[in-house]
From TrEMBL:
Residues 232-356 form the U3 small nucleolar RNA-associated protein 10 N-terminal domain. GO terms for biological process: maturation of SSU-rRNA from tricistronic rRNA transcript (SSU-rRNA, 5.8S rRNA, LSU-rRNA); positive regulation of transcription by RNA polymerase I. This is Uncharacterized protein At3g06530-like. The lineage of its organism: Eukaryota, Viridiplantae, Streptophyta, Embryophyta, Tracheophyta. GO terms for cellular component: 90S preribosome; small-subunit processome; t-UTP complex. Residues 645-823 form the At3g06530-like ARM-repeats domain. SUPFAM superfamilies: ARM repeat.
Amino acid sequence: MATALASQIREIKAVLRGREDPLRRPITRPSIIFDPKEAADIDLRTILSLALSGLDVLNELDSRFGKYRNTLFSHTSLEVDREKMVPKEEEKLNISIRSYLRLLSGHLQTPAALKTLEYLIRRYKVHVLDVDELILCALPYHDTHAFVRIVQLLELGNSKWIFLEGIKTSGAPAPRKVIVQQSIRDKGILETICNYASPTKEFQHSRPVICFCTAVIVEALGGIPRLDTDTVKRVLNFVFDGLNPDMRGSQDHKAGALMVVGLLATRATLAPKLAQNLILFVARVAQQDSKQSPDLSWLRVVVMAMVSLVQAQSTQMFPKKTIMILRDIRDFAAILSGLLLDFKIQKFLCLYLEALVDYSTSDDSCRLTLVETMESLPLKDFVERIVFKVLGFCIKLSRQVDSSKLHDAGIWGKQILLVIGNYYPCELQAAVCKYLENSMRNSTEEESVFDTFCLMFDGQLDLPQSISDSKVWFSLEHPKAVVRQATLSQIARTGIIKEFADTPQKLINVQDAIVRRLYDDELNVVQAALSVDGLSILIDHACLFKAYQDILSRCVHIIEKSTSKSSQATDVAILCLVHLVTDFGSHLDYSKEVATILFPFLLVLPKTWKVSLKALELVKQVKWKFYCDKLVEHDPVSCERIKGWDADYVTTINSETIEALANALLSNPQDHIQWLVNSSNTNKLSRILFLLVILKALMICKEVNGSFFKLHKACFPPLVNEWREMESRRIILLSEEFYMEKFDKVCSGFVDQLFSADLDAMNSKIMVCIFWSLVQACAEAAHQDSSEYCCDQILDELFLFFANSPSRNVFRKHLHFLVTRYNKDTFQLLSKYFTDEGFPEEVQIESLVSVSAICSMHTSPDTNMKESSPLQLLFGFSSLLIPLSNKNKDIRASAVSCTENLLKLWRSFDVSRLRNGNDMMLPRGISTAIFGDFLESIVNQKKLIISDVDFLSSFLTSMLSPCPDTLRAPENINKRFDQSTKDGILFFILSSALELSSYGKLAVFSLLKGVGSVIFHVEGLKLLLFELLERRNQYCITHQALPTIESETLCLLLEVFLSSPSSGQYDADIGSSLIKSLKVDGLSSEDPAGPSARMCDCPGQSHACTLYNHLKADVQYDVFSCKWRNGSGLRFKAGVWSGWL
C-alpha cells in the first residue's frame, strides 16, 4: 500500500513539474519555433509531446534516433534538472546530449528536428550549457532562418564564435564566405570544424555535414598563400581519420580527405615521413575500394590524389609496404596509362618503376608487376632509368656475391631487358650504350663491366662468341666504334648470324642490334654491317630496305660535301647499291622502289661518278619494265677516262643514257609516266633527269610519226603540275631571254651544264624548252593534218596553260608561235575564249592580245600568211562585240585594242580583189568601205567604251535603230548611215552571232536589244525564236528543260518580238508557238521549265493587245478559253491578260 502510494505521489509531482505556476511563469521564454511570448504560455509537457512527434519522424529517417525516446525525451526527463545533478549523472547526460546534437546536425533542415531541439532548449538549456555543440550542429545551415534563431538565443561573450554576433543584431543569415574568412583568421575555428567532421569508430556524420565542413576546410586552405606547419597539423586529423578504413568513413569522408590531400601537396612543404604516411593511407584507400567497388572513375580519382602528392613533394622512394599495396590495386596499370595521357605523372612513374626494380630482385611478385607495367604503359621515356637501375644492380651484385652465383642473379636482369627489348629496342640500345660510355671513364672498369655482364647473362666468360648472344649484343652496342666494327667483321667471317636467326629466344634480339649498326654514325661500322651475308634472311624486308635507303642518302650527302670521308662514303654507297639490287632487285614488292632509287644515279657527275657507274652496271639486274638493255655499258678503259674526268666523254655517256630512257618512255608513255613523276620527286637530280628525258623524247618524236600525241597526253599534266609547283616556290629563275633560233643548241647544252649549273635555274630553262618543243610539235602535226581533233585539243591545252600562268611573260614567244603557225582558222580557235562562258579573265585578255597580234602581222608588208586569214578576222568582228561589252574593264580595253588593229587590217586590205568573181565570199554590207567607217566610229568612242560598260549598247542602238538612244551616244550618230546600210550591218552582225555559242548569242542580242524588232528581219532570228519556243513546248512531254542561258535568250527575243507596234510584224507560226508556251498548266514557280515564269515579266505587256488582235479568230478563242479555265495556272501577270483581253 505504501509503495503504490509513493508511486502515485511521484506521478503527481511529475505532472505538476510540467505545469508551472501561472503566477511564477516568465513573460518570455527562449524558443526557435515560437515567438518568445507565445513560448512562455506553452508548458513543458506540451513541448515534450511536440518533440516526441518530431522524434518519430526522425526515427523513420535514421533508426539511430530511436534510442533517445527513453532517455532525453522520456516522461521522466520532465523532472531532470541539470544544475542539480551529481557529476557522474551530469557527464552521462552531457554525452547523450552531444551525441544527439551530432546526429541531429544531418537533419536540422527538417521541421521535425527543430521540434526536438525546442525541447532540448527548454528542458536541458543546451543554448546555455552546450553552446559549441549547438553552433556546430547548426553551422551547416548557416544560410537559413533557423540558424539565425538559434544564434539569437546564444550568449557568445568572448568565445571563438564572437564573429557570429552580427547575426543576432541584423537577423540576416551568414554566407559561407564569413565562416571561411574567420577560419583563415582563427585557426582554432578551422581545427574545430576539422575535428567535428572527422569520423570515429562510433559515429559518422551524414552527407550535408561532411560536404559543408569539407567546403569550408578546402576554401580556407585555398585562401592561405602558403600553408605552414601549424595549419597542416590542425587539419591532419580530418585527413587521416577520413582515409583510415578502421574509422569506417563514408565515400564522402574519403573524398573530402583527398581534396585536402591535394591542397596540402601543392600548397605546403610536407615532412618526408608525413608525405610517406599520406601516400600509404591513400594507397590503402585505393586498395580497399578496388576490391569493394567496381567504380573505376572513383578509383582513378584516388590514384590521381596519390600521384599529385608524389609529383608535388620531394619524395625519394616508395617503401616496400606501399609498393605491395599498389601492386594489389585492381587495374592499376590501366589507370596509370590513362592518367599518363592526360597529366604529367612522370615523377610518380619513375619512382614507381625504380621501386619495382629494386624490390623485384628479392620478390618475384614485384618482378611480375614490373613486367606487366612495362607491357601496359608507354614507357619510352623511362627506359634509360630502368636499364641503368638493372645494370647498376648487376654491377653492385657482382661485388657482393661469388662469381659462380652471378649467372643466377643475371636471370632476373635478362628477363627485364628482354621485355624492354621487345617493346623499346632503340631506347634499350641507347641506354646500354650510354651506360657503357659512362663506365669508360675508367679504362680498367670498362673491361670489368663488360666481363661482369657476360658472366651474369651467359654463365661463363670464356664461352665462344658463336654461343654467347649477350657477348655479341653488348659488343654491338659498345661505345667504341672499333669494338662494334670488329664484332660485325667476326660475324661476317664466321657466319654465326644463322645461329641467332634459328634461336629467337636468346637474351636480346641480335637482329635488331645489327639493324641499328646499319644506322651507325661511323661509316666503318656501317661498312662492316653491310659485309654480313644473309641480311635479307635475318632482317625484316621493310626494315632492311629502309636502312639501305638511309645509308645511300647519308653517303650521297657526305660525297656532295667533299669531306675527308667522301672516299669511304663512296665505297659504302657502292656496297649498299649491290646489296639493294641483290636483295630486292628481283623482288616483286620492291623492284619499283629499287628502280626509283637507282634513277638519279644514272647520270654520271663529278662527285658521284663511281656510284653512277656501279648503278649503270646493276640497273639491268632490276626487273623493272622501264629499264632496257640499251643502257650504256662501261669497260675498264671507260672507267679510266672517267676517272681522269674526260668531260666530253662523260657528256656522251649521259646523252646516250638520256636517249635510251627517252626511247623507253616513247615505247609506252602512259604506262611509264607515273613512275617517272614519282621518281622525279625524290631529289633535284632525279627531277633534272626526268625533264631531260621528256625533252629528248619530244625531240625524237619529231622523227616518229604519230608518237607525239601519246607523249603529250601522258606528259602534259605532270609538266603543268611541275611548273605550277615551281611557281608556288618562286624558283622560276630565267636570267636570259629565250631565243628560239638557238633552241637546238640550248637543248644540247643542258647535259654539259649538269657539272656546274644551278639545278633550280636549269629546271626552269629545261621546262621552257620542253613547252617550246610541245608548241613546235603541235604546229608540225597541224601542218601534216595528222589528227585534227588531237591537234585542236593540244593547242587548246597549251594556250590555256600559257595564258593562265602567272609567269605568262616567260611564254610570250610560245604563244606567238602557237597562234601564228597554226594551219587552220586561228580566229575561230582564239575567239571561243572570249565568246564562250567560263574562261578566266587572263585567258580572255590573252586571246584578244593574240588576235590583235595576228591583225598586226597581216598589216605588215613582209607577211607570208594566207590570203584567207584577213577575211576570217574581218568576218569575226561580231565576236569582238562580246568582250567590248564585258563587265571587266581590262577585257574591254584589250577588245578595243583588237578592234583598232582590225580597223588597220581593213584599211590595208585590197577590197577590189574581193569584187572580181569573189562576191560569194562577202556578206551583205561588208563589201564596201562603209564597214570601215562603222569600225572607225566604234574605235573613235574607245575611251567611253572602256570607261562605261553600258555605253556600247546605247551607241549601237543610236547608230542602227530607227528610234535612237541619245542619252549616252553622240548627237546625229543615227544619221551616220542610211537605213539600207544599217540593215546590212545588222544582218552581218546577227548572222555571225547566230554561229556563236549560246552565251555569245545572248551577249550580242542583249547588246542590240535596243535596236528593236528590226533584228527579226534576219530570218535566222525568227527560226531561233521558233526553235526555242518549240523546245519549250516539248518540256511537258520530255521533261528536258531549257538551259538557263537559252531560257534567258528566249525571254530576250520575246521581249523584242512583243515590243513592235507594227501590224505586219507578227508571224503566225511564232504566235501559235508562243500561245502554246503560255498554256502550260500546273507549273510551280520553281519549275525548271523556266521561261514561262520569266516570260510574263517581258516589257512587251503594253503590246500584248496588238499581238492578240493579229491572231486568228480560233487562236483568239483558244487563248480566251484557256485564260478563263486556268487563269491562276497561267504565268502571265494580271496586267498582261488585261492587255490581251
